[in-house]
Amino acid sequence: MAFLESDDPASPFDSLPSQVTQDLKSLQPTDITQVNATVADIVRTARGTVPRLRKIRAEIAAETPRFDLSLIEKLAGYVNALEVTETACRAIPDRSSFDRELPARAFQHRDRLRKNAEILADAKLLDAKLFERLSGRKAHVNIADDLVELERTLRSAWPTIRNNCPLTNKDLQLATEMAAYLHARTNEFGADYAANLDLRARAFTLTVRTYNELRQAVTYVRRVQGDVDKVMPHLYAGKTRR
């Protein structure tokens, strides 16, 4: 969370309200949704709904008195955070040589190694304290750190476990290579690169989640008029997911 906690007066996150930054930090890693659409499109659609939501605020309050109306302004804040974090992610050195598919493959490989490690630990063939040292986070540097820890622990127990699991020596070597690549590229792009990706994913998660909550309320409130799509169109309508 380097940017959120930075004392740098030029930090782009200084413009964000403290409550927004707190909400970003409070998200649990398991609740974070990875960015699966063009951020500019999501920002444009979500930001465009805020003025329309403000106009029908009283109507929403009357029809759904228990609904949290603060979500309207929260959405505006999360959209701004998403735009700021997207800008920060793009303000890094050229990434043309970066293997864009590797982080996803590394994430899957970490998951495979961990699942096998859990089975081995249950069978008392591996030290269960390993899992206390794993972060499970989705930032590239965290995936790399976990791969290193998994490879080291599995390697040390290899004489005992090699015939008791489907893993091979190549799987452990692959973990080492993936971790080294992710660490090297993260350092090349700057210390804040991985943190920026994590923050963008957090802002994206809160934007999409809040938008959908508001859309559910508007769908009910505008059920007679039948114009929910004019007030709040589907967030992914006409957009390419990735």
What would you say this structure looks like, in words?
The chain is an all-alpha fold and 242 residues long. The chain folds into 2 domains: 121 residues, no CATH class; 88 residues, no CATH class. The longest helix has 29 residues. The N terminus is likely disordered.
Indicate the topology.
Elements: H1 18-26, H2 39-55, H3 57-63, H4 70-90, H5 102-122, H6 140-156, H7 158-161, H8 169-189, H9 193-221, H10 228-231
Helix pairs in contact: 2-4, 4-9, 5-6, 5-8, 6-8
Task: Record keyword descriptors for this entry.
mainly alpha; 10 helices; elongated; disordered N terminus
Helix content: 55-70%
Structural class: mainly alpha
Order of helices and strands: HHHHHHHHHH
Mean pLDDT over all positions: 85
Overall number of domains: 2
Q: Output the number of helix runs.
A: 10
Biggest sheet record: none
Radius of gyration: 22 Å
Low-confidence stretches: 1-10
Distance between the ends: 25 Å
Tell the overall outline: elongated
How much strand? Answer: under 5%
Total number of β-strand segments?
0
Short description:
The chain has 242 residues and is mainly alpha-helical. The protein contains ten helices and no strands.
